[in-house]
Every structure is written in structure tokens, then in C-alpha cells.
Amino acid sequence: MRNISLSINSYLLVFICGLVLFYYCFLSQPEFSKVAAEETSIEKQIEAALFTKQEFFGAEAIVPFPTAKARENLTELQNQFPDDAKITQKLAELDEKLGDFGAAEKRLVQLAETNQPNLENLAAFYNRRARFSDEAKVLEKRLFATENADEKAMIFFRLMETARLHDFGEYLSPAFYEKALEKNLAVYSIFEQLIERFSEEENYTEALKFTRQAKSKFPEKQSVLLEKEISILLEMQKADEAEKIYQASFNPFWSDEETNKFYEFLSGQNRLRAYGAELKRDFRLNPSDFQTAIRLAHYQKYDGEPITPIVLQLEKHKANWTAEELLTAARFSIGESEGDLASRFLYTLFLRDDFKEDKATRAKVLYQLFEIFSDAERHRLSLVKGDLRFYEDVAKADTSPGIATGALSLIFSDAKVKDEYAEKEKEANKLFNRAAAYRLFSTYKEEFPTLPELAQMYLDIVRLYTAIGDAEIAEQTLLEFEQRYEKADDYASVALRLADAFAATKRAEKTREIYQKILDYSGKSEKMLAAKNDSPISNDGINIPIEKSENESEDVYSSYEPQAVFRDYLGEKEKRFFYRDTLEKYVSSLAKEKQTAEILALYSREISKYPNQEWLHEERLEWLRQTNLTEEELRVYREALERFQTDA
């Protein structure tokens, strides 16, 4: 009985399917022309040409026309709109399905001639038809037609793969590579692909040629290309040339990774110790040679030896310094926490007439000096150490300040220092250094009133005087900062530092008020709205003293003084702060106080302003998940789904 039942069900299913097919193919269907006439947009009319509505067992369904019928409908539509590219594209697809490849190709060629992006459809057609030579020709045309760098790199890769697989020699010749690069010199990925290809083929001469071309075109890729150049030269058994290239490319501020690679290369060639010995010999013979001194200092740092004696020797023997040399020596000294030495180099540089026009670097130098004086704490710096009255007399008499006394003119307007100097010497040093830093701050305000570094100085001073309990100076500085921040060159960066300053004084409402202003400002730019830094924090700034507990109080009888630590701000790249960075800080400030409802309200307000930013919806949904608000979460999820449809 069970088998009979199954057999009956099977027959019934076949019968129903046959009935549907008969109904669909032979019974009358709505005329396409009548349906299309009711539609106003081309898209709707194309849809009407491709699909029809049928009723099956009381339910309406959308079903496709047979391919031949669909082509007939579209041809009729094209007679009305002969220049519409979407209709032509659809007709090409239907021609191909029906095996009319000549007609499909003709339509695709017509589209490609009128619109360059349609070349991709033609290339894909040739690929499906296994007409790889024609595909390569179209790819070549695309390579020289498109302006998008990423697209160029992708097309070049496809062309090279097609040529390699099908042995199209014309695309694998040096002449074609030269032609491709002539039109695409700004596309690093093309150089990269060529270098890799020739290296794999062990054609090192060509690989080296393209590597050196790339080095001259892409300075930001110097590190990677230098490593590649050295590896190619070693493959060519040219170790001596490789070492000359490496030494000529020496950078005293290589990263630790780059430094290790350089010395590992020398070690691998059994040249490491000999290299160090040669530098020591050359420096003994000429202690005023800057390049030898810096290379020796770099080598000794790698080898774990002190470098300060080398820099001191150089300072003693070298009479004439370029601005770049003073800057390099200062940064080396900062790296060794030699604030005294660094400050001498920097202040000498700051006073030079030939340096006064370089405003950007000059501003950084002044901020670095400010940081050194601030972080020196109780350590003596030669610019300010000694008997106070002696240096005051010198400062008054010296109308043309030199390296040892120049900074004093910045300091002695702070009479408070004199009153405090009678206390223990270390405390006097600390007060003296802070006074010097404050005078540098005042100088900066006059010379660079709108630069972001000034905002960092304001923030540093507010943090410092808040930490040491001097609320009056902190409040005055904060008030002044608030009055002038809107005039800054980089509003978002400066305003974020003002918000940090309010946060340092525990004024949460003012902090969030500034955050909101930054959000509104940044949201005006699509680029600032979408971009994000990896670490959205402002400059760490100076070292802020931490208040010690009674048990941790300082041992007045101890002679131990921890070494001051200084940061190198001269080599830092400029940071930009964007909408997402600020929102993250805003949310974090609310989260610290467990104000989840306010966080959700913040996201809702921002979404109402920028509804097309998908990441805003995602972040709000994540906060909803954390609060277990199931119904609200579902509603938000549905809203986001409706706005951001995916193919998943």
C-alpha cells in the first residue's frame, strides 16, 4: 500500500508540473507592450521585458519570459530607446545565452567604444569564449585608458597572467614593460609586480633596473626597495656593491627593524666588527667629521656602548654646523635621554638666522625645547644651571646670547624663581626648569599663535599644574586656551586638546561640549566622517608627576635621582583627528561613568544627522547588545537592514 501511495503522489507531482508548464508556455500572457507602456522609467520597462506576472493556484508570481521572447521584447524596447546602454547590455547577455555570439560581441564592442568601463564586460566575454588573445588586447586598452591606480595594478596583473598562461610574448617583452611604465609611473604595484616577476625568473639585471627606477619614483617605499635591491645584488654575487649601496642609504633614524637588518647584513658578510673598527679609526683621525661621528654613534648604540662621549667630542671639535646636523645631533641626544646636550643643540639652532624662515621645523624645535625643560624636573640643564645671580648678571650683559647663555633671556622675567631658589638645590632646579618652560610657552604664543603644538603646550601646562595642585595657573591657562582655540589652523586637532584639558580638570560637561563641536565640524566633510586613526589620542605631551602616597614619600636622605626621560617629537609625523576618533573619546568618557542611556542617545542623534554611515548603526547595535535591550535591538537591526541591503 505504501508503494502504491508513493506512486500516486509521484504521478500527481508530474501532472501538476506539466500543467504549470502548459499554462505558462501556451496560454495567453499579458502583452509586453501594454505592460511596458504603463511604466515610466527605463529600469521598470526593462524589467517588464524580462519578467511577467502569472497566477498559480490563487497566488501571483513573477516569472521570467523564455530567453527568445525576452530578446524579442527588449529589441522592441530598443527601437524606442536606441541609445540606452542598459538595454544593449541586456540584449548582449541574451544573445550569448541563445548562442548568437557574433551579435553579442557586436553589442559589447559598441558599448566599449562609447564608455570605457564597459571594456571589462568585453574582456569577460572573450574570456568565456576562450578568445584569450582578444581578451589580452582589451586588457591592454583598459590599462592605458583607466585613471584609477588600484584598477591599473589589477589589470596589469591580469594581463601578465593571461600572457604567461597563453605565451603571448609581445606582453612579456622589455619593450612592453617600458611602454606600460611610461604611462603608469605613479603606480607602485606595477613596479612591484615586475620586480617580483624578474626575480622569480632569475633575470636579476632587469629586476635591479626596475627596483632602482622605483626607488627614484617612490621615496615612501625606500625601506622595502632598499632591502630588495640588496637581496638582488647578493643573488648576483655583488656583495661589495651591496655594502656600498647600504652604506650610502644609511639613515640615523632607521627603525629598530631596519637597524637590525643593516647590521645583520654586515654580520652575514663578516664585516660587522671591521665596519666598527673603521669608523673608530676615522673618528680618531677627524673628530669633527659629522657623518663619521653619527655612524659611529649609531653603531655603538647597536653594540650596547655609550654614544654620549662621541657626540661630546663632535661638539668640541666641530666649528661649523648645518641646521640639519644640529637637528640630527639633538635627536640622537634625546634618544639617549641626554636632555642637557639636546637642549644646547636645539637652542643654537633656534637662534640661527638661516633657520628663521623654516616656520614648521622652528615650531617643532621650540616645542621640543619646552618638553625638555618640562621633563628635566630636578636635573640640571647647562642652559639654566649655576648660581642664579651670576646667570642673571650674564644675561643682562650678554646682548648677543650664545649657546650657554641664550636661553636666560627667556627666564628671568619669572621673579618667583628667585624666592624659591634658597630651598634645596634639586627643588630649585625643578622650579627653574618649569620657569624656563613657561617662558618658552610665552615665546611660542607670540611666534606661532595658531599651530597645533601651541594647543599641546596649553594642554601640558593645564595637566602639569592640575597635577601639582596649582589650580590658579591651571584655570587661567585653560581659560586663555578656550578663548583662542577656534582660531587654530587645525581646528579639530586643537579642539580635541582643549577637551583633554577640560578632562584633566575633571570638567566632564565642558569636555563633552567640545567633543560635540568637533563632531559637528568633522561631520561636514565626507572624508573626515569616514576616516579613523589607529590610536585616537592626542600627543602624550610632557611627563606629568604622579602624587605619591605617604608610604611612597621621597627619602630626603637618598642621593638617588632617576634619569629624566625625554621624547623625540621632532621626528613625529603630523596626526589628523577625525569624526570617528572624537566619537570614540566621547563614548569612552560616558562609559567611564556608566552612562549607557546617554551613549545610546548620542548614537541616535548622530545617526539622525548621518543616516548613511553604516558603521554608526553597527556601533549603536553593539551597545544595545551589551545592555540586553532585546526589543530595541531588534528594531534597530531592522532599521539598519532596510537601509543597508546586502547580497548575503
Task: Specify the overall morphology.
Answer: flat
What average pLDDT do the residues reach?
78
Strand count: 2
State the helicity in percent bands. Answer: 55-70%
* Poorly predicted segments: 1-8, 11-16, 19-39, 386-424, 547-560
Strand proportion: under 5%
Q: How do the strands line up in the largest sheet?
A: 1-2
Determine Rg (CA atoms, Å): 36 Å
Distance between the termini: 45 Å
Describe the protein:
With 648 residues, this protein is mostly helical. It has 33 helices and two strands. The protein has helices spanning 2-26, 32-37, 42-50, 67-80, 85-97, 101-114, 119-128, 132-145, 149-166, 174-183, 188-200, 204-217, 222-235, 239-248, 256-268, 272-285, 290-302, 308-317, 323-335, 339-351, 359-375, 388-397, 416-420, 425-447, 452-467, 471-484, 491-504, 508-522, 526-530, 579-592, 596-609, 614-627, 630-643; strands spanning 51-56, 59-64. The chain has a two-stranded antiparallel sheet. A hairpin with a 2-residue loop joins β1 and β2 (59-64). α4 (67-80) packs antiparallel against α5, α8 (132-145) runs antiparallel to α9 (149-166) and α31 (596-609) runs antiparallel to α32. The longest helix is centred in the first third of the chain and has 25 residues, at 2-26. The radius of gyration is 36 Å and the shape is flat. The model is unreliable at 1-8, 11-16, 19-39, 386-424 and 547-560 (pLDDT under 50).
